[in-house]
Amino acid sequence: MELDPVLLSRIQFAFVVSFHAIFPVFTIGLASFIAFLEGLRLRTGNPLYERLSKFWIEVFAVVFGMGVVSGIVMSFQFGTNWSNFAQATANFMGPMLSYEVLTAFFLEAAFLGVLLFGRGKVPPGVFFFAALMVAVGTMISTFWILSANSWMHTPGGFEIRDGTFHIVAWSEAIFNASFPWRFLHMVMASFLTGALVVCAVSAWFLLRNREVEAHRRALSMSLWMLLFLAPAQAVVGDFHGLNTLEHQPVKVAAMEGNWERAGGVPLLLFALPDQANQTNRFEVGIPYLASLILTHELGGEVPGINETAVEEQPPVAIVFWSFRVMVAIGLLMIAFAITGLILRRGGQYWQKPWFLKGLTYMGITPFIAVLAGWITTEVGRSPWLVFGEMTQAQGVTPSLTGGMALFTLIGYVVVYAMVFTAGIYYLTRIFKAGLETEHTAIPQVERPKRPLSGSHVSFDDDQESDFRGSEQGGTPHGTL
Amino acid sequence: MGPFDLNLIWAGIIAFGIIMYVLMDGFDLGVGILFPFAPDNDARDVMMNSVAPVWDGNETWLILGGAGLLAAFPLVYSIILPALYIGVFLMLAGLIFRGVAFEFRFKAKSSRYLWDWSFAGGSSLAAFAQGAVVGSYIEGYNTVDKVFVGGPFDWLTPFTVLTGFGLMAGYALLGSTWIIMKSEGYIQRWAYRITPYLVMVVLGVFAIISLWTPFVDELVQHRWLSYFHIIGILPTLAVLCAWKIIHYVRKRQEGVPFVATMGMFVFTFLGLLVSKWPYVVPPNYTLYDAASAPESQLFLLVGLLFVVPVVVAYTAWSYWIFRGKVRVGEGYH
Ligand code: HDD
Ligand code: HEM
Ligand code: HEM
């Protein structure tokens, strides 16, 4: 059996980056939420915000820790599996990744310590500042990495000399054609993720009648956020798509499942793309809608997949379906946001069990939407690594054999499965412990400046909170 | 090459980054390597607490090293990572297990031993893999037309196994002298006791590597034979540092052994650099062959000059916050 190193490297890269991406999308949103809570606390002096913030900082610590561990792997992936790509694009990718480390990772590392362990040790103003800096750090990180990624989709500002990309205009390269929309769409996706997870967890507590006052407030805040962001995300997504139509028409054609250039194209709700015969089976669609969305005219022309040579077409079915998953989830979010608004009347939004139950399930959807969106984007770029310039097969490490790639792929799957299980297990313990646990009274031993150690819920032993309470004589909230 | 040579500046920056990483992550990896040998569980708590506040920042230097190499000398990145494909995977797996062990050990009760093992095993694996990188660097890489053409296990030779264990011993020494500084009582006494043995092991490996290297690489042999009167100062200083460690351990001086160990590392590192200069991907490519475009080097350099002082200030600040001894049952002061 012949193992294909290109295919295996693609699978491996997709796996490790998807695994990594789950954590940042959550922490980017959550970091801002925490900074917001700390800001409110500073202004109003209401201890409720502090308790909420403490709870969410614990969650943040765990998720951030996993993001860091998986991120370290990422920074070596380009070299191990895509060394030709690394070599050819280093003039751009190198400075981007280095700037990310310099301007974002060190900033996060420094202020994270204060955020996790500095409460009471630094003045409240400094503490708020630290929360703000962590949030800013995640944003800066997103900026650089998405600029690097967008450049791979819409490369700009470069010249090729001897097979190497040379940057001749930095601003054109960094602010390349698809970057603004991708950045905006991604940041909003992160905020949506944060908002929906907070919604889900608050709803879960409300259903169990625990700490009702605090969670009602958190739910209210995040529902407003959802109401504002979910529709805006659809609009931004539309613009993002129009931008792609201009620069990567074949990707949009694949998203629409449109094989032949035509006017008055329907929006397909269902179809089974058949790449071998360059057509769809079992099409169900709304007439004219795709043309209307993409060109803002009923009869507008939409590009077809078959304008591109078969070898240069992306795998249509994956792009087609992952796009539908994302959009469906986006519409579902809008539906929940509007329902929430209607239920505001008489404070029903935090009392209707069916609504709360629905929200708990919604907690997982942003992660699915984010991964689906990325799969659309990245698979739609196939077979190109740098769109129009370098293919995946050209970018792969020449010395890499299928066996080596398979070995590390299995290795990462096994290692990540173990880490992920432990992390999820631990997160559910934090959620179950809730706000009621004594957050401030952690014995010194347990508060090293480590991401996950910021949360003190016992990993496998329920007795620990008792031990902690007695040790510190049950220091009340907010006195430290 | 203009008034100032960007490649040289970048070589200096990368060398600085690497030695920063080795010194800073070195002592916390060393603490992990020594973990199974600690006198008891309380000692392990103290050891872990002593590195916990700074571990995260320390490892960020590794990421900077990777990204910086990609930016300034991409050829190093694109040849050495494929050449060490399996080794890099092992190192990353070690760092992952070690990272999560840090996170979960304090929450675990009945499963604590699991996290102890993953901390010690992960640290040892990562240290060994890094040592093997050094060995493979000395041996050189099998390349054609700027592409690695060797096999998946080229990096695993008797020599690289030796350098792998050598770096483990070196990190363990950094770890033990760090523990001397950060602990007291029986834990400190234990660290005082093991340090001279570790120095002996490190010196032994150091001697074997020094004698062996000239046979591995003719360039090194030639350079050391013809310039020994100048560069011979480096190993002499390293041995002097080793002597200082033992001397001040006997005198029960807390701070000097750690500083002297760092000195040992710095002089050995410089010795390695002069042996190989100007080859960054031996035996074929110099730093000039490996360099990225000058406009890219310059673009990053400008930012670096502004940001690095701030980064160093953060780092110093966080070490300052967590200064002082770590005691059993307590945290930081
Ligand atoms: C919470 C997450 C989320 C939600 C609800 C949506 N998206 Fe999205 N979408 C993403 C998260 C995302 C993403 C993961 O962030 C992607 C992948 C890369 C990117 O730039 O954003 C993405 C990519 C992406 C692309 C591909 C861009 C390209 O070609 O590179 C398009 C056209 C859209 N989105 C459009 C939409 C529309 C019309 C939505 C309407 C509801 C929508 N997205 C909801
Ligand atoms: C959509 C894609 C990505 C986004 C939005 C993103 C964002 C982030 C953020 C916000 C963090 C901070 C940790 C956290 O919040 O969990 C992080 C960590 C990290 N990311 Fe990513 N990242 C992405 C993809 C990548 C890729 C492709 C690479 C590698 C080239 C990478 C390398 C890293 C590294 C090395 C870390 C660890 C930093 C540390 O030690 O603090 N990331 N990422
Ligand atoms: C944040 C979440 C991300 C997800 C879920 C994701 C997903 C994927 C998927 C599914 C593939 C496989 C495509 C295929 O096989 O056709 C892929 C490939 C790839 N992506 Fe991403 N991606 C993400 C972010 C990024 C970022 C930020 C970068 C670069 C800075 C990046 C660079 C690459 C590269 C180099 C490949 C391999 C070559 C290829 O198959 O095209 N990705 N990614």
Q: How would you describe the overall organization of this protein?
A:
The complex is a heterodimer of chains A (480) and B (333). Helices cover 67% and strands 7% of the residues of chain A. By secondary structure, chain A is mainly alpha-helical. In chain A, the strands form four sheets. In chain A, strands 1-2 form a two-stranded antiparallel ribbon. In chain A, strands 3-6 form a two-stranded antiparallel ribbon. In chain A, strands 4-5 form a two-stranded antiparallel ribbon. In chain A, helix 2 runs antiparallel to helix 3, helix 7 packs across helix 8 (249-256) and helix 8 (249-256) crosses helix 10 (316-342). Chain A starts with a helix and ends in an 8-residue tail after the last helix. The model of chain A is unreliable at 439-454 and 461-480 (pLDDT under 50). Chain B is mainly alpha-helical and 333 residues long. Chain B has a single domain (6-321), classed as Formate dehydrogenase/DMSO reductase fold. Chain B is built from twelve helices and four strands; from the N terminus they run H-H-H-H-H-E-E-H-H-H-H-H-E-E-H-H. Chain B has helices spanning 6-34, 41-72, 74-83, 85-105, 112-139, 158-182, 185-216, 218-231, 233-250, 256-276, 287-290, 294-321; strands at 143-144, 147-148, 279-281, 285-286. In chain B, strand 1 and strand 2 form a beta hairpin. Chain B starts with 5 loop residues before the first helix and ends in a 12-residue tail after the last helix.
Report strand % of chain B. under 5%
- Spatial separation of the terminal alpha carbons of chain B: 51 Å
Largest sheet of chain B: 2 strands, antiparallel
Please give the order of strands in the largest beta sheet of chain B: 1-2
Uncertain segments of chain B are none
Give me the oligomer status.
Answer: heterodimer
- Kindly state the number of beta strands of chain A: 8
Q: Which fold name corresponds to the CATH topology of chain B?
A: Formate dehydrogenase/DMSO reductase fold
Class of chain B in CATH?
Mainly Alpha
Number of strands of chain B: 4
Structural class of chain A: mainly alpha
The tally of helices of chain A reads 15
Overall spatial form of chain B: globular
Low-confidence spans of chain A: 439-454, 461-480
CATH structural architecture of chain B: Up-down Bundle
Mean pLDDT of chain A: 87
Estimate nothing, just give the exact number of structural domains of chain B. Answer: 1
